[in-house]
Specification:
mainly alpha, 3 helices, single chain
Length: 83
């Protein structure tokens, strides 16, 4: 579980690096979203049989999942903070 959290932090940082711009919550929220994206991508990817745990495809999927969650977060929170 600790390894998953550390990997999630790494994934969140990488997602932030790949999606530059201002985030409403800062780095801590971005890393938390990275952890969430990592978990979501892991459960969907391994559950659907796309890859096995600890395969490189899982890391790539985790980054993409974190980017998707970060994008959705920016849309939702960005709208409410500008209203």
């Amino acid at each position: 579980m600790i390894v998953a959290i550390i990997l999630g932090l790494l994934v969140g940082a990488l997602a932030k690096l790949l999606m530059p711009g201002r985030d409403p919550g800062g780095w801590i929220i971005t890393c938390a979203l990275g952890i969430a994206g990592s978990f979501v991508a892991h459960f969907i990817g391994t559950g659907a049989g796309y890859y096995a745990p600890y395969e490189p495809a899982g890391f790539i999927a985790s980054v993409l999942g974190a980017m998707l969650i970060l994008f959705i977060y920016r849309l939702l929170v960005g709208k409410t903070s500008h209203s």
